[in-house]
Design a protein that fits this description.
Layout lengths: L1 E2 L2 E2 L1 H12 L5 H10 L16 E4 L3 E6 L16 H19 L6 H17 L1 E2 L8 E7 L2 H12 L3 E10 L8 E4 L2 E4 L7 E3 L5 E5 L2 E12 L2 E10 L6 H8 L23 E9 L4 E5 L12 E6 L7
Parallel strand pairs: 6-14
Antiparallel strand pairs: 1-2, 3-4, 4-6, 5-6, 7-13, 7-14, 8-12, 9-10, 9-11, 12-13, 12-16, 14-15
Helix pairs in contact: 1-2, 3-4
Protein name: Pseudouridine synthase RsuA/RluA-like domain-containing protein
Family: Belongs to the pseudouridine synthase RluA family.
GO molecular function, one term: pseudouridine synthase activity
């Protein structure tokens, strides 16, 4: 990347890593990423811009946008997913209340307002996604519902599938099983992770993923593959590290690529589907595939190996 004739690629890459760990420049790198975006790519400009892909009396599942933090703790000045969900719910319930016939009395309206405020307060997320990852994210509407999803995660009654665009053409006639432990990289500042074959890996824990190749194509003129990943464990940055271990790092991953892949407008990782078997209900949600030419013209499919619609 040139700025006034000076190559600042390394500076931008280092800058992005510092911002990733909560440095004061966090919002600056976010703005820089936004400027790189395709004109066809959507980005939430307000708390009202949110997609609900599953709803019941106990849960919501949203299609989280990439580079949107989960809550205000992650980025106080930015739109965040929790804010989006709560504002959407409050607005919808208010519209329903105002449409009821006959209209509520002043006393009923006051009681309803207090009740709604408590319902909004009770909404909380059940799990997390990385900042750069888009896709299915579950919110509980009460503490008891949240506890049931927690139990489901502990008891491994959760299925999570991710789509990713990775560098190069990955060739595999069958599903690839990656069983490589992940730990923290003691040689890096912040919570940078690594596989256990790294010389500075500490406290490595088991991590397993299944990888299926869906499509071959090109991204920005270079060979790329679309893969479907099912994670059997939930370690930090697991998919990103397992794809790097296979020699096909995720496009746009500015933490685990060498040289650092800072040019794409996002990390090409998307939580495609989420199934949670709680004792209360079966949560089953699907978020549309964002890695299509109509959304990002830089991606061009040349060969279909397995149809995405199957998942």
């Amino acid at each position: 990347m040139n700025l006034l004739g000076i190559d600042v690629s390394g500076t931008c890459a280092t800058f992005s890593r510092l911002c990733y760990f909560g440095a004061p420049w966090y919002s600056v790198i976010l703005q820089w990423y936004r400027q790189q975006r395709s004109d066809h790519y959507r980005y939430p400009t307000s708390a009202d811009d949110i997609q609900i892909v599953y709803e019941s009396k106990n849960y919501f599942v949203v299609n989280k946008d990439d580079l949107v933090p989960i809550d205000s703790f992650d980025a106080p000045a930015q739109v965040n997913v929790t804010q989006q969900v709560k504002k959407w719910f409050h607005k919808r319930e208010t519209e329903r209340f105002l449409k009821q016939d006959p209209p509520a009395t002043e006393e009923q309206a006051e009681q309803w307002s207090k009740s709604l405020a408590q319902k909004v307060e009770d909404i909380r997320y059940c799990h997390r996604l990385d900042l750069g990852t888009s896709g299915c994210m579950c919110y509980a509407r009460s503490a008891s519902a949240s506890y049931l999803t927690y139990k489901a995660f502990i008891d491994k009654r959760v299925l999570k599938y991710y789509l990713a665009l990775v560098h190069g053409h990955l060739h595999a006639p069958y599903s690839i099983f990656v069983n490589v432990p992940i730990g923290e990289n003691a040689s890096c500042y912040g919570r940078i992770m690594c596989t256990d074959d790294h010389p500075h890996c500490t406290a490595a824990k088991p991590a397993q993923s299944h990888v299926d190749v869906l499509e071959h194509g090109e991204y920005d003129g270079k060979p790329a593959s679309k893969v479907l990943v099912r994670i059997l464990t939930g370690k930090r940055h697991q998919i990103r590290l397992h794809m790097k271990y296979l020699g096909h790092p995720i496009i746009g991953d500015y933490l685990y690529t060498d040289p650092i892949d800072y040019k794409p407008h996002r990390i090409m990782l998307h939580a495609r589907s989420l199934t949670i078997h709680t004792e209360q209900e079966l949560i089953d949600a699907l978020a549309k595939d964002p890695f299509v030419t109509q959304i990002d013209p830089k991606w061009k499919k040349t060969k279909t190996i397995l149809p995405v619609s199957r998942w």
